[in-house]
Amino acid sequence: MKDKMKAWYQTGLLKQEEREIDIPLPRSSQVQVKVEYTGICGSDLHYFEHGQIGDFIVKYPFILGHESAGLVTAVGEDVTTHKIGDRVAMEPGYTCGKCEFCRTGGSVRNFVYPSVAIN
Predict the structure, then answer these.
(1) pTM of the entire structure?
(2) What HEC string does 80-111 produce?
(3) Residue-wise pLDDT tens digits, 95-117
């Protein structure tokens, strides 16, 4: 596996640049995902055009795009829910961990919640 990957950073209002960065390795409870697709939603466009939504103000540099899907490429030693090669969708929002969907994965079994190392 290569040691670097490309990432798109928002560097200011209506400004972006591509950077080559180190590929993060997963910690013991994390999975690493090779991102194949990322959706750009309304919040991403708002951050790009206005630099904020409500009281959340973007601190630059900032990576847009948080609705992603890809392949698990590495798993931490404590991970039992996913294996290398699994296709997953990612939601970086934190879950409550208490409701039925959070405890069981709901109808979406291959869904990765934080924390993940993205490649």
Answers:
(1) 0.71
(2) CCCCCCCEEEECCCCCCCCCHHHHHCCCCCCE
(3) 666 766 666 655 444 555 544 44
